[in-house]
Structures are given as structure tokens and as C-alpha cells.
Structures
1.
Amino acid sequence: MNETILIIEDEAKVAQIIRAYLEKEGYKIRIITDGAKVIDEIKNNPPDLIILDRMLPNVSGDLLCTQIRQQNEIPILMLSALTTEEERIFGLQIGADDYMIKPFSPKELVTRVMALLRRSKKKERPAPLVLDNGRLLIDPLKYEVYRDGTKLSLTPTEFQLLLMLAIHAGQVFRREALLEKLQGTSYEGYERTIDAHIKNLRQKLEPYPAKPRYIKTIFGVGYKFSPEQERNHEL
């Protein structure tokens, strides 16, 4: 493997454990302990994936996550001792692609890193999807989405979520099914994090997020991408 992973973690023991497990799988590892140095490091030497602790000296992990996401689409796996569902959802809302609670299983972390990297790779994919009479274009090869000619800045997770729903337009997906398709498995208690990714995606994709045009909520079940014929009927 040639992928480089940047670990942003001020606890030396935790950082070294993560390094050991990931290097065993062939990844190249860099470690930063000071949040104030992160943005310059990413700008000068962009990694393939970031493991980000929320509790850092000098600059908070939340602020760093927001700043990183504003500048690029590198996958972010956030680590935190904050355990509530609200905290997990907040971490996803500010741009993290995945969230793990400390203490965590190093083996599970490696599995999640692999899943995130798989989703972010630009493999050969089908031709672009042209939807909504040309207003929406999803290019699986370039990992790009355009609405009314404007390119949207989506995270790898948001892109994969949109692509999956759009390819299966009209099909209703339960939260746990979406989570399993995105991560390769469904982690108990994490199904609600799909809601946070959907909320983020709607803010970027929908002309009026409060009244979504594309991604519909099926209450008590999950979500679906609304086919054109259904939207035309609604109009």
C-alpha cells in the first residue's frame, strides 16, 4: 500500500498504538501532536486520510475538522472520548466521515480506515448520471457532482451516499442498510449517524433543504432518491 495516513493526536501512547497497527497493514504514517501545525502540514503534504482527535492543545479538533473540510475532501476519521449520540452526530455534521469513541479497538479502527480509503479511491466507474432534466449531474469517475452547472463540494461519504441513492432511485433504504453499504458493516448504535450525513448532503445538494427535492425521508424506515416522474407529479 502507498497510502499515507496523518494521525493528529497529542496522546503519544494512543498515537503509537495506531501507528503500529496501520504500519502492519502497509500504510505510511505521519503524526502531529500540535493542532496549530496541522493546516500547513496538510497543505504542504496532503495525506490520503486523516485520523483526528477532538481534544487537542492550542487548536480544537472541531475547528480543525471544519477548516480541513473547507479546503479539501480528504477522508477524516474522528476520535473522541465524548460518547453521546449528539456528540457523534455533531462530529459528522462538521465534516468527519466517521467517528470512533475512545477507548476503541485498534483492529476496528484499521477496518474503518480501509473502508474510508476504498470509498475515496477514484476507480473506473460507470458513465455520469444525468438527472432532473439535466439539472443534476453525478460523475462517478471524477467524484464530482454538479447542480445547475455549479460544482458541489461533497465529502467522500456524502458522494457515495448520493451515488448509491441515485443509482437506485425510488428504492427505500433503511439506515442500517446504508451504513453497511458505506462502511462494509453496520456498527450497532451508529445507524443514526446516517441522518447527520443526509443533513449535510441536503444542505449542499438541495435548493431548499427544508423541503428536499431529491432525497426524501420515509418516516420510520429510512431514505430514498426521488425519481423524476415522482417530482414532476408532485409539481
2.
Amino acid sequence: MKSIQKIISNRNIIRYPSWDLVYEWEDVFSRELGADIGYLTYYARIINKICPALKNVLLSGRIKFIFHMIPRMGNSIDNSASVVPLIIDFFIREPRELEQFYKAYDRCKVVLISSKEAYDFLKSVNCPLPIRHLALSIPDKYAIDKYALSNKTYDLILSGRQNDRHRAWLETYMKNHPDLYYVYRVQDGGVFNYYTNKGESLGNLSTRDDFMNLIRKSKIALYATPGIEGDVKRTNGFHQVTPRFLENIACGCHIIASYEKNSDTEYYEIDKFSPNISSYEEFEEVLNRCRQQPVDIEMYEVYLAKHYTSQRAKELTSMISRI
């Protein structure tokens, strides 16, 4: 049976905070698949030293898995029958760019797309690549801990990119409910610093554990899928559910969400946690209720069991065994 034998990582050359979660996924895949983690620089150096005509010979045999934050659009050493890429963000619609995408991956035996919405779109335009859907996940080390969630300090947290509508609603809510205690972030010189609306500085939370612990202290999280309102241009109209949604659930937060209904939001069952909030009146009503009620931890546990990274490793193993 075919299996993933090596995971190719960027961790020794890319230090952006947005990649920290990727490296956590890699660690879980490595453990669950029994696959070593290799480094892209070493991988690329070997390829670059030999004749391009020998590329497929060199890369044949051991099956390698790699995360691509966005699609590669040019000639890449990852375009090989022995490389399985998982594309995290896919926002391509224009036919000419789609053709570039197809060419960039035309030697891969399988190309994994994390977004169900993007996967369905590619199927609808007759994508010639052997694509499969493998959704994003949350690392198992963040498994929900009902005892760790008993100490909720803040009413609400703005833990990631927020849309203007949520901010406007929150400002209105504060006029009527000045006792609300919440956390927000500000980007200062490329670093995200966190503050409370009471004037307290919480620092920049330099580690993932610090960040997750802050969310655990909050009762409620506001969440919006990318690509709505002013974010449409960036995502080209795609509305992929991001890992932040799963992180908020793992930290035992009520979710107040605005989202586009599509196959990705259906896959993640967002409506189990929040209606699609579309007015201030609805926002105020749901926020008031969430401030008073505890979350259903048992329901959260059952839900997250479907979305831990170890579960995705099992799904990947099944896919690879059939190529």
C-alpha cells in the first residue's frame, strides 16, 4: 500500500506567524503517518544541482507531502508524481490563471484542496487535475479541556481579522452595555499587540500557546468568513472557513458569526454554532444570550473529534492508498 514517507517543511526558512499553525499540522502528520520531516532548502539544493531532465527520477519512489499556502503558479520542483501538495488558500477564478495553475501541478498524481467551496468550483469548471478535498483542521494538542475552560475572564475576544460590520455593531453595543469586557488586537510595526477595552495591555503573545490561552479566557468570539464586505477583492469572492473558527471552538467560546452559505460553511457546520448574523438587533440579542449561558462542552467535544489533525492524517492515508 502506498503511503506518505516524508513531509517537506519550510520551517527552517519561513518564520512568519501565519506559518506556525502549518508547522503544528506537519508535526501531527509526521507522528500519525510515521513520516520524517525534511527541509525545503535541502530538497531544493539537490534538485538544482542536477539536470532538470533527471528531476522525476530523483523524486520518484518516496511519496512526499507538502503544504502550499497558496497555489504555485510557475515551474516548481513540487510538480512531481511523488509529491502530494495541499493548497491552503485558493482564490483563483480567471481562466488564464487557472491554466497556469493546471500546468504548475500537471505531474502530481493528486492535488489536495483544503476548501470545499474551492474544490467544488474547480470541479464545476472541469479541472483536469486529480484533485481531492482535504479540509483544514486543528492540532490534537488543542483538544478541548472542560476543566481549563472554567476560568473565563473576558466577555468577548476579537482574535483575528474582523470585518467593519462587526466592529460597528460592537461600538453600538458598548453604548448600551458599557460593562462588556473585551479583548482586541492592534498591529504595531508588523507586530500584533493585544489590549482590553479597559485600557490594559496584554502584550504581543509571541507563542501559539499564549494566544490560545487568551482565547480560552474569553466567553465569546466574533468570527467572519473571509471574502465578505471589504474583503471580497482579496479572496476573489471565495469564502473559505479558516482554522480560527476551530480554534475558537476548541477554546470553549460561543461563536457569533457572519458568513456566506456555501459548501465550505456547510462542511464545517457553522450554523450549529451561530446563525448568520445580518443585523445589529440580531447581534445584540445573541451577544446578550451568550454572555449568560455556558457553552455545550459535550457537543463541542463531539464536533471537534471530526476535525483534529490526526483525523485528517487518516483521511490522507486512505486517499494515498488509492493513487
3.
Amino acid sequence: MKNLLKALGLLVVVVVAVNSTLFVVSEFERGVKLRFGKLIEADIQPGLHVKVPFVDDVRIFDARILTVDAQPASFFTIEKKRLIVDSYAKWRIANVETYYKATGGVESVAHNRLANRVNTGLRNQFGTRTLHEVVSGERDLLMKNITDDLNRTVLGSLGIEVVDVRVKRIDLPQEVSGPVFRRMTAEREKEARELRSTGKEKAEKIRAAADRQKTIELANAYRDAEELRGEGDAEAAKIYAEAYQNDPEFYSFVRSLNAYKNSFSNKGDIMLLEPDSDFFKYLKQQDAN
């Protein structure tokens, strides 16, 4: 029984010793090792590591990209117009030793300091731009400049890298929003009038082109019809001439029959002619026969 208790006691001591001696840093973490409060090893890489029990202390930090959500702040543009800006920044630890010395490894301290510097950077950038440039004209350039300016300062002072800075929302104070909205409405109405005017101009050009094409098509059709009619009349005259040359007497007879038909089409028609007129030439021949 005593041997069993000794074995269990020894096992407990071994477990405590191993637990106090070994520690693990995961792939998304970084750490520093302290000995009696003094930094002896910075930027401990992922993996299994050894420390001196009850002498060394290890601090582990999250090395992933983190987000600091700055409080909405009031900024002025170059036109002295006030804006309420809500922003956030993405950051990560770049130098573990500098980060620990500047913040004590406390993430909230890093957030507060970075948020203040983000607001300072936004204030400086907004102060050199107009309202239009800030709202819609140069938003990407504005964010890039702020990110570059922050990295030039926080990398050396806080040991962190700013990955990106973004503006979530820009609000106008009550004294500014009314005139701005009216100006925006006037600009949109002006643009709408210009678009309508351009549309009407294009419509008139299209109508004029269509009318011109219609006139050309009708003229061409009339020309072709007249040419065909002329060709038909010429062909008919040619046929009549050939028929007249082949048998002049028959041609004269046919014309006389047509003349009789047209002359006596109505019962009330009266004609006064001399008996020996050529008009009754073929009628007389019929009576004689």
C-alpha cells in the first residue's frame, strides 16, 4: 500500500514537473519568455518548447489579423465642414519584442493606442480634402495614405503592422446635411436634364435619318416603276408595230371594231356622220357580203 502511494506521488510530481517545464505555441500564436520578469527570449515560434519551472514565465499572444473598432469621431474637411466618421483597422503583431515592451502584451492597450492613431490619421487626411473627395472621389487613396502613415509610426513604436484601414460610415451633422443634400439633388437634376437633352438630340437625328431613308426608298421605287412601265410601253409599241407591218388591213379592222365598241357603249349616244364616211367602212363591206 505504501509503495502504491509512493508511485502515485512520484507520478504526480513528474506530471507537474513536465507541465511546468514544457509548453506549446500553436501555429497562430507567438510568445515571449521572461525570467524573473526580464525578457530573455522574444518571438517564440510555433512548436514545443522548454522552460525552467517556477523561474521562467511565458506570455502567449494571438498572431492572427485582429480588428480594432475605433469610436466615431468628428473631423473637419478643408472646407471646414464637420463629418462624423466611424472607422476600423485590421492589424497584426509584426515585432513581438517591441509589441510586448510597448503594451505589456495586453491586447486592449494595443487597441486603444492604435484607435487613437487611426483617428489622428483620419483627421490629418480629411483636413486636406474636400467633402466630395472624402465621400466619393478619393476614398481608396485616402485609406491607402492612412495605412502607409500608420505603418511608418506604429511598426517601430508598437511593433504592429496595420493591414488595412476602412471607413464604415460617414455621417453629416444636421447643420451640414441639409445644404449638402440640396446640392446633391441639384447636381442629379442637372445630370438628368443633360441626359434627356442628349436623348432628344439623338432621337431627332434618328428620325431625320429614317425620313431621309424613306424618301430615298420611295424615289428609287418610283424610278424603278417608271423604268418598268416605260419598258412595257416600248415592248407593247414594238409588238403593235410588228403586227401592223405584218397585216395592216387586220390591224385597221381591229381598231375599227374597238372604235365601234366604244362609240355604241351607251344606248343614248347619237352620232351624226356622212353615209360615205370611212367610219362605216367595214360595216358596209359586211352588208355587201
